[in-house]
Amino acid sequence: xxxxxxxxxxxxxxxxxxxxTASDDRGLPKQADLASSVAxxxxxxxxxxxxAQKRGRHLCYDYDSFVYFAWPIVAPVYLFQTRGARAFLTxxxxxxxCLIAMFPSAVVFLIxxxxx
Length: 116
Fold this sequence. Notes:
Largest sheet: none
Structural class: mainly alpha
Oligomer: single chain
Number of strands: 0
Strand content: under 5%
Radius of gyration: 16 Å
Shape: elongated
Number of helices: 5
Helix content: over 70%
């Protein structure tokens, strides 16, 4: 589970840095936004598949594609099926990773605001 979690951290940090260095207020360019959404879906799908392997849970055929395309629904359902109420802790950790990774973007935003 180290590799998928590390990939989630790397994705979140890369997204935060890319958002921070975006040249205008509209955010990331279309190509970068598309790459970001594809990468996030891949990382979440990989995390779910590795977690299922670690837990010895047999998933249906092509479950990883299902997670890739519908991760906002499927990943939390998987977490609640495998962890019960402890799924809130895992979801809180995911949110924490994203918030921590957005810190560079917030710092750059504040610097730009006070610079003017």
